[in-house]
Task: inverse folding
C-alpha cells in the first residue's frame, strides 16, 4: 500500500452502557411494560402479583391522551408498595421502583437515566412502546425484559423483537385474559415472545428471573469453569450433529449468553442440566438454534449509509452498463428482509432518475428458514412507519389493515434462499455485497475465511457494504476504502493468495451430502498437508516434496534447493524438470516402481553434481492417500548421505588419485537404472499400442451408432419443434387464464370489501381462508389471522364452541341457523353453510352474521312504503 492510499479508519468503539446497580452493588433487570386499551386492568393485576421487593425496576409506557394530565401514578400507587414515579428529564433508575411515561412524550435510557423526547407525528399513530423497548434493548441487552399487555394496534412488536435480539427475555399477555388482544397477538405472531401468560403469572416469572444468574443478582462469571466449558462444547457439537451448522467459530461470548438465556427460560441453574435437557428434548435444540440466529434488523438502518450508496456506489454501477446487464447484489444474513427491501427501494429511487434503467437482481440469503419465509411474504407491521418515510410507504408498500406489504414489483426483484456463507460455495459476478452486522458475530478465524469469499464473489469493480461496527481487520489488501464512515469498500485485485477451496468448504459444511450421496471422493489441500506431516514426523522430517499422479509438485517440505531448482523457460511445477543433474534417471525409476507396487521405494548413493563436487544422496518415494479419498499422492524425500562419502566431481589437476572402481560401480548403477526405465517405457508403449488398436475398433463401431443416433435426433428435433408449438399455445392459454383469475380475485376482494356483512370462510381443517372487514370486529380477527384455525379465536359472540359447530355442519352437510348476541348485547342471525366447490365437493364452510335489528328496520321501511 502506498502512502497516498486511504487508510481505513477503525470503527468508533461503542460506549459501554452504564447498567444500574442495587445498593449491594449487584445489577438487576429492567422491565419495560407496554399497554394500551384495557391495559390498566392488566397492569393492576401484574403489580398486585409482585412482592414488596421483586428485585427489578419497571418502565411503563401506555397510550395516553397527550392533552390530558395523567392520573396513572396515583391509581397505580394504590396497587403496589413500590414507589411510583411519573418520569421527568434525567431521572435516575432505582431497583423496586415504577416509572411511568408522561403524556405526549417518548422515553429512552442513557447511562442509567431516563430521557424524554417529544413524540413523532407518524401517519399511523404514536409508537411510544417501540421507542422505549428499542432503547431498553440497546442499553441493557441481556438484562432487558419486555412485557406486552392488553392494547389495540401493533405498538411494541418491533421493540420486543429488538429486546430478544439483544438476548433479553420477553412476555405477552395471553388472549383469554386480555381485553384487547391486538398488541400481544402482534408480538406473538412475530415469533419474538418467550412466555404467553396472564399478568399475575408474568409477575411470578419476573421475580424468578430476577434471581437467576443470567439477569439477577449473581451475574455469571466471565470465564466459565472447565466442566462448564466442556458442557458448552458438547452443546455446540449437539447442534452441529443434529442441524449441520457449526457455531464453534462464532463469537463465543454471544453464544454463551444465548445458552445461559435458555437456562433462565427453562428454570435451570447449571449448564450440565441444560445439556441433559437438550439431549432429551429435540424441540429445545431448534429453539436454541433460533436464539443463535440473531435477528437485528430494520428498514433503512443508518439512513446516511444508504444515501452514501446513492451518491458513491450506484453511479459507478450504472456507468457504461448495458441495459440488458442486470445489477447483481448479494445480501448475506438478510434475516426477515428489511435490509434487502431497503436496498431495492434506494436503488429503484436512483434508477428512476436516469433516462434508461438497468434491471436488478438481488440475492438474499440467511440460515433462518422462518425468517426467510417472512422475508418472501414481505408483510410488516405498521410500526415500520417509524423507519420508513410516508413517501416511500406510498410508492413501495401496499397498505392493508394493521400492516404493510412490499409491492409485488419490488418483491419480484429479490430471491430469498437458505445459504451458509461459511460452508456453501459463494455466488459470483456480483456488483455489490451487503454483509452488515454479520462479521461482528464471528471470531477472527471465521472472518479470515469469510472475507476472501466475499472478495471472490465480487466483480473486479464491485463493492462491499459492512455494518457500522465492522472492519476489514487484516484484509485491507483485498479492499480499498471508498467511504470509511459508512463502511463502504471497493474491491482490489487479488494479491496472489491461496485459491479458495470451495470443494473443502462444501464438504465440511454438508458432511455426507456430497461425498456420500453422490459418491464423489472429497479431499482438500489441508487433508494432504496433515497426512504428509504425519509421515514426515515419523521419519524425522527430511526435506522433500509432495506430488500427485501427474508428478506435479503440490507442496515443498523444508529447504529443497540442494535437490531441486527452477528450470529455465516458462515456470513449471513438474518434478522431473526441477531435479538437479544426476537425480532424474534414479527418480524416474523409483517413482515408476512406487506407482506399480504402491509401496515405499528407496534409492541410495545417487550421485548429484553440485558445482565442482559430487554429493551422494539418498532418495525415498512414499505413496499415500488422504482419508476417504481415491486420489493417490507421493511423498518424495531427499537426504545427503555421510559427508565422508562425498567425492570430487572430477580428477583434480594436481594428480590426486581417484577411486576409479567406485566411479565404474556408480556408472554401472546409473546404466542399470536407465535400462530398467527404458524397459518400463517399452512395456508401457506396447500396452498403449494395444489399447489404441482396441480403441480404434470401438471408435469405428461408435461412429456407426452415432450416425444412427443422429437420424433419431433429427426425428426427435422435429417432434420437439411440434411440442414447442403446443407448449406455446398452452402457455398463451395459461396467460389468459391467469389474467382472468386475477380479475375474478379482484372482483371477489372488492365484493367482500363492499358487503356490509360479517362473513368468514374456512377450509375443511377449520383454518380461516377469507373474511370481510366487518367480520374483524365481531369475530375478534385481524388480517394476519388468515391461515389460523378458527377454534383458536375467541369471538365476541355468545355462541359456545364455534369450531365444533362448524365441523358438524361440514360433516353432516346440514346448514345451521341461530340467533346469537355479541358482548355489547347486539343480536345477530348466525348462518353456517357448507362451502361447495364447482366440482360439487365440500371444501369448508361459510359463516355469515345478519344484523337482526337492521333487517327489522328494512322490513318496516318496506311496509311503510307500500302502505303510503
Result:
Amino acid at each position: 500500500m502506498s502512502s497516498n492510499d486511504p487508510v481505513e479508519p477503525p470503527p468508533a468503539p461503542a460506549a459501554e452502557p452504564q447498567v444500574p446497580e442495587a445498593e449491594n452493588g449487584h445489577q438487576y433487570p429492567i422491565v419495560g411494560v407496554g399497554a394500551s386499551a384495557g391495559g390498566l386492568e392488566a397492569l393492576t393485576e401484574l403489580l398486585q402479583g409482585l412482592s414488596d421487593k421483586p428485585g427489578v425496576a419497571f418502565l411503563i409506557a401506555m397510550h395516553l391522551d397527550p392533552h390530558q394530565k395523567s392520573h396513572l401514578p396515583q391509581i397505580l400507587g394504590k396497587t403496589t408498595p413500590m414507589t411510583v414515579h411519573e418520569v421527568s428529564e434525567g431521572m435516575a433508575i432505582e431497583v423496586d421502583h415504577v416509572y411511568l411515561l408522561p403524556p405526549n412524550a417518548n422515553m429512552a435510557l442513557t447511562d442509567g437515566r431516563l430521557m424524554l423526547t417529544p413524540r413523532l407525528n407518524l401517519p399511523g399513530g404514536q409508537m411510544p412502546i417501540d421507542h422505549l423497548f428499542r432503547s431498553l434493548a440497546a442499553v441493557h441487552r441481556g438484562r432487558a425484559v419486555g412485557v406486552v399487555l392488553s392494547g389495540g394496534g401493533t405498538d411494541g412488536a418491533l421493540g420486543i423483537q429488538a429486546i430478544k435480539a439483544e438476548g433479553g427475555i420477553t412476555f405477552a399477555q395471553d388472549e383469554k385474559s386480555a381485553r384487547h388482544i391486538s398488541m400481544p397477538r402482534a408480538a406473538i405472531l412475530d415469533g419474538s415472545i418467550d412466555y404467553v401468560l396472564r399478568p399475575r403469572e408474568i409477575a411470578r416469572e419476573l421475580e424468578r428471573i430476577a434471581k437467576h444468574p443470567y439477569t439477577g443478582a449473581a451475574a455469571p462469571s466471565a470465564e466459565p469453569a472447565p466442566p462448564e466449558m466442556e458442557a458448552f462444547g458438547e452443546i455446540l457439537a449437539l447442534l452441529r450433529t443434529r442441524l449441520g451448522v457449526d457455531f464453534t467459530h462464532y463469537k463465543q461470548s454471544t453464544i454463551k449468553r444465548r445458552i445461559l438465556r435458555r437456562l433462565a427460560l427453562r428454570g435451570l441453574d447449571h449448564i450440565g442440566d441444560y445439556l441433559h435437557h437438550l439431549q432429551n428434548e429435540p424441540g429445545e435444540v431448534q429453539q436454541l438454534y433460533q436464539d443463535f440466529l440473531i435477528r437485528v434488523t430494520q428498514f433503512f438502518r443508518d439512513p446516511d449509509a444508504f444515501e452514501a450508496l446513492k451518491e458513491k456506489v450506484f453511479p459507478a454501477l450504472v456507468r457504461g452498463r448495458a441495459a440488458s446487464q442486470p445489477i447483481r447484489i448479494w445480501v448475506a444474513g438478510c434475516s426477515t428482509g428489511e435490509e434487502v427491501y431497503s436496498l431495492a427501494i434506494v436503488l429503484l429511487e436512483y434508477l428512476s432518475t436516469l433516462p434508461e434503467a438497468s434491471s436488478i437482481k438481488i440475492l438474499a440469503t440467511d440460515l433462518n428458514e422462518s425468517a426467510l419465509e417472512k422475508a418472501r411474504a414481505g408483510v410488516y407491521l405498521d410500526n415500520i412507519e417509524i423507519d420508513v418515510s410516508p413517501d416511500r410507504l406510498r410508492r413501495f408498500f401496499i397498505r392493508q389493515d394493521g400492516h404493510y406489504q412490499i409491492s409485488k414489483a419490488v418483491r419480484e426483484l429479490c430471491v430469498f434462499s437458505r445459504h451458509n456463507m461459511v460452508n456453501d460455495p459463494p455466488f459470483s459476478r456480483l456488483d455489490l455485497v451487503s454483509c452488515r452486522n454479520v462479521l461482528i458475530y464471528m471470531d477472527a478465524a471465521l472472518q479470515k475465511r469469510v472475507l476472501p469469499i466475499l472478495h471472490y464473489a465480487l466483480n473486479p469493480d464491485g463493492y462491499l457494504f459492512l455494518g457500522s461496527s465492522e472492519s476489514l481487520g487484516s484484509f485491507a489488501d483485498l479492499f480499498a476504502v471508498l467511504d470509511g464512515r459508512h463502511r463502504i469498500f471497493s474491491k482490489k485485485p487479488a494479491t496472489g493468495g491461496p485459491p479458495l477451496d470451495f470443494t473443502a468448504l462444501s464438504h465440511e459444511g454438508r458432511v455426507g451430502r456430497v461425498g456420500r450421496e453422490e459418491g464423489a471422493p472429497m479431499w482438500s489441500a489441508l487433508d494432504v498437508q496433515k497426512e504428509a506431516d504425519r509421515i514426515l514426523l515419523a521419519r524425522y522430517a527430511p526435506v522433500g516434496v509432495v506430488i500427485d499422479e501427474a508428478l506435479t509438485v503440490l507442496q515443498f517440505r523444508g529447504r529443497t534447493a540442494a535437490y531441486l531448482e527452477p528450470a529455465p523457460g516458462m515456470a513449471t511445477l513438474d518434478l522431473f524438470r526441477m531435479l538437479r543433474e544426476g537425480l532424474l534417471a534414479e527418480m524416474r525409476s523409483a517413482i515408476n516402481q512406487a506407482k506399480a507396487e504402491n509401496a515405499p521405494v528407496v534409492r541410495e548413493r545417487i550421485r548429484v553434481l553440485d558445482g565442482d563436487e559430487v554429493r551422494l544422496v539418498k532418495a525415498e518415494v512414499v505413496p499415500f492417500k488422504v482419508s476417504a479419498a481415491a486420489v493417490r499422492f507421493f511423498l518424495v524425500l531427499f537426504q545427503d548421505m555421510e559427508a565422508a562419502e562425498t567425492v570430487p566431481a572430477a580428477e583434480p589437476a594436481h594428480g590426486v588419485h581417484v577411486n576409479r572402481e567406485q566411479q565404474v560401480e556408480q556408472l554401472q548403477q546409473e546404466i542399470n537404472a536407465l535400462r530398467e526405465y527404458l524397459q518400463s517405457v517399452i512395456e508401457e508403449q506396447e500396452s498403449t499400442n494395444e489399447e489404441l488398436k482396441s480403441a480404434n475398433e470401438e471408435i469405428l463401431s461408435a461412429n456407426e451408432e452415432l450416425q444412427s443416433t443422429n437420424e433419431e435426433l433429427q426425428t426427435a428435433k422435429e417432434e420437439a419443434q411440434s411440442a414447442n408449438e403446443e407448449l406455446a399455445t398452452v402457455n398463451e392459454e395459461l396467460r389468459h387464464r391467469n389474467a382472468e383469475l386475477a380479475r375474478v380475485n379482484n372482483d371477489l376482494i372488492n365484493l367482500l370489501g363492499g358487503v356490509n356483512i360479517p362473513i368468514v370462510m374456512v377450509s375443511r381443517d377449520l383454518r380461516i381462508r377469507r373474511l370481510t372487514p366487518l367480520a374483524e370486529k365481531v369475530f375478534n380477527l385481524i388480517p394476519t389471522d388468515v391461515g389460523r384455525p378458527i377454534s383458536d379465536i375467541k369471538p365476541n359472540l355468545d355462541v359456545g364452541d364455534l369450531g365444533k359447530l362448524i365441523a358438524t355442519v361440514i360433516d353432516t352437510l346440514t346448514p345451521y341457523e341461530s340467533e346469537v348476541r355479541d358482548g355489547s348485547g347486539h343480536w345477530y342471525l348466525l348462518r353456517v353453510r357448507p362451502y361447495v366447490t364447482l366440482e360439487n365437493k365440500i371444501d369448508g364452510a361459510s359463516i355469515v352474521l345478519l344484523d337482526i335489528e337492521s333487517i327489522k328496520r328494512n322490513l318496516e321501511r318496506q311496509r311503510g312504503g307500500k302502505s303510503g
